[in-house]
Amino acid sequence: MSSSSNRRHPAPRHLRVQSHLFQEVSRTFRDELSDPRLEGVALTSFELSPDGRLVRMGYTVTPEAAASGLRPVQEALDRACGYLRSQLAEHLDLKRVPRLRFIFIGVSEQAPEAEEGES
Question: Is-contact 73 38, C-beta < 8 A?
């Protein structure tokens, strides 16, 4: 199998690790982070790099949170990275815990709670 086909179709293990990482980060983000600057923030995308060293997480904010400015939100997310990584290390059996990078996607139409109720 050529290496170019691996880039297009991640291995089942890579997808499994990505799924476990997403579930754990989402749970921790929802249940354990209490920074008020993160109210109105929803994780919307999650991608583990092919080498497993970096996770890119897209997020959206509510119009209310956007009106307050994005800098406080990004600072709160950056500050939460260490805690999130420590939780990943504690709850998942990984040789190396990836770095986390949060990427602003846009302003959402609805509050994150309303989106969860629709699923």
Answer: yes
Question: How many whole angstroms separate alpha carbon 60 and alpha carbon 42?
Answer: 5
Read out DSSP for 77-101?
A: HHHHHHHHHHHHHHHS--SSPPEEE
pTM for the complete prediction?
0.78
How many Cβ atoms from other residues are within 10 Å of residue 40's Cβ? 21
As a whole number of angstroms, the distance between CA 8 and CA 5 comes to 5
Query: What does the alpha-carbon distance between residue 102 and residue 71 come to, in Å, rounded to a whole number?
Result: 12
Q: At what angle do helices 70-91 and 12-31 cross, to 10 degrees?
A: 120
Model confidence pLDDT, tens digit, residues 5-64: 445 677 888 899 899 999 999 999 999 999 999 999 999 999 999 999 999 999 999 999
